[in-house]
Amino acid sequence: MTSDPLIPGGGTVRCTITTKFNVPHLAAAWESLWARANGQYHESFSVCLRAWDAIARAKNEELFCVQFWDGECLVLAWPLIRYRKGPLWMMRPLTPSGGEANSLLVDPQRSVNQLVSCAYKAVLAEARCDLLYLPLIRMSSPLYVLLADCVPEGRDVAPLARISQEPDWDTYSRAIGVGSWQQTERKRRRILQMNGAEFLWIDPKEEAELIPRLIDWMLLEKERWAIRVGKKHTWAGSAPYRDFLVSSVLDPDEIMSYRLAAIMVGDQPLAVKLIAICPGHVEYVIGAYSSDPAHAKLSPGLVLDEYWMRRVFDLKLDVDFGTGQEAYKLFWSRKNVEELRTYRIPLSLRGKLFLSTYKWFQRLRTDQD
C-alpha cells in the first residue's frame, strides 16, 4: 500500500506508506537519516530489517512503514507492525523485543513537530486496525505531545548516563560514591582470584566463533532471571530473537560497532553484556549474569558494568541503558532518567469496546489486590 500526498506546508516532502523494505536506495537513505538523527539502536535500518525478517514476519505480521521523502532524501521513518490478536487488528512499533523506548526517527534539521504530526495522522487514517498500541513513548518525543489527551496505561523510565558531560573518570566515579567503588573493587579482586578468571572485551569481527555461545548463555540466564522475579520476557526464550541477535552482531557490514563484555572463568561465563556503539551514543542492549547462588554474592553483573563502562568512557558518548528501573541502571546513570508512557488508542468501535472491557478488568484486579 503506497500513497503520496504532499505534506501540508512541507514543500516537496511526500509521504509513502509501504509494506516492504526492499525499496531501491532505502537502506542507504535510512542509515543516513539514522546517523543525522542520532537514532536509537533499534531504529537503524539493519536492525529494523532483521526484526522484520527474523521475528515479525515469522509470526505472519504485516509491515506498515511510514516514510517521508524530500526528493531522494529520507526525512522521517516510522516502521510499525499490523497484526491480529484475537478478534482485533492491532498496530504497534516494529522493535526487536517490544521493550525498547520509542520515538520517531526524524531529521533534526527539519520541522520535526510538523513531520511527526503528519506521520501520526497518516497512521490514524491508513492503519485499518482496531487498536494502536504505543508502548514506552519518550516524553521528549513530539509524539508524546500529540498524545496529551490520551490517558497512559503504563509508565517507565529510560536511564541515561551523561558521560559527554563528565570531565574524567575519577570525577564521575567520585560522583557515584567512593563506598560503592570500594565494594566493587573487592568483588572484582575476588573474581580474579578464581582459577582461570578473566575479563574480555570482544570485537565480534575478530572473535566471531565466541558470539553464538555467549548469546545463547546470556538468553538462557535472562530467561531464568525473568522466571525468578516474575517478569514476562517472551523474547528471552525465543529462537527468532536469538537468531536476530546472532545475525546482527556477526554481520560484517553492520553500521554499528557491537562489543560483548564478559567475565569468564575458564570457558564458563559469569556475566555477559552486549553493547552497541552508535554514531552519537552508546547503548546497553542486553545482559545477564550467572544464576548460580555461589556467584551471586560476587555481583558479577555490577563488576562487569564497571569494566565495560571504563572501556566506553573515553568515547565521551552518553550511555543509554534502555528501559527499566533496575538498581544498576539507576546507579550508573546517577538516576538521570527520561520518563516513558504507554498508550492504547482505539481506532474503531470494536477497539473502544475492547479497551473499555480491558480497563474494567484492570480496575477489578487492582481492587482485589
Verbal overview:
With 369 residues, this protein is an alpha+beta fold. It folds into two domains: 13-156 and 342-368, Aminopeptidase, CATH 3.40.630; 163-317, Aminopeptidase (3-Layer(aba) Sandwich). It has twelve helices and 13 strands. It has helices spanning 26-36, 45-56, 112-126, 142-146, 169-176, 178-192, 211-229, 239-250, 293-296, 300-313, 327-332, 349-368, and strands at 13-18, 62-70, 73-85, 88-93, 105-106, 131-138, 154-161, 197-202, 257-265, 268-277, 282-289, 319-320, 337-346. Strands 1, 2, 3, 4, 5, 6, 7, 8, 9, 10, 11, 12 and 13 form a 13-stranded mixed sheet that branches. Helix 2 packs antiparallel against helix 8 (239-250), helix 6 packs across helix 10 and helix 7 (211-229) packs across helix 8. The protein is globular and about 65 Å long. The model has no long low-confidence stretch (mean pLDDT 91).
**CATH structural fold name of the largest domain:** Aminopeptidase
Strand/helix succession: EHHEEEEHEHEHHEHHEEEHHEHEH
Total helices: the number is: 12
Query: What is Rg?
Result: 22 Å
Strand content: 25-35%
Protein structure class: alpha+beta
Task: Give the number of domains.
Answer: 2
The tally of strands reads: 13
Main beta sheet: 13 strands, mixed
Distance between the termini: 46 Å
CATH superfamily of the largest domain: Gcn5-related N-acetyltransferase (GNAT)
Under the CATH scheme, the architecture of the largest domain is 3-Layer(aba) Sandwich
**For the record, what CATH class of the largest domain applies?**
Alpha Beta
List segments where confidence is low: pLDDT < 50 over at least 5 consecutive residues: none
Averaged pLDDT, please?
91
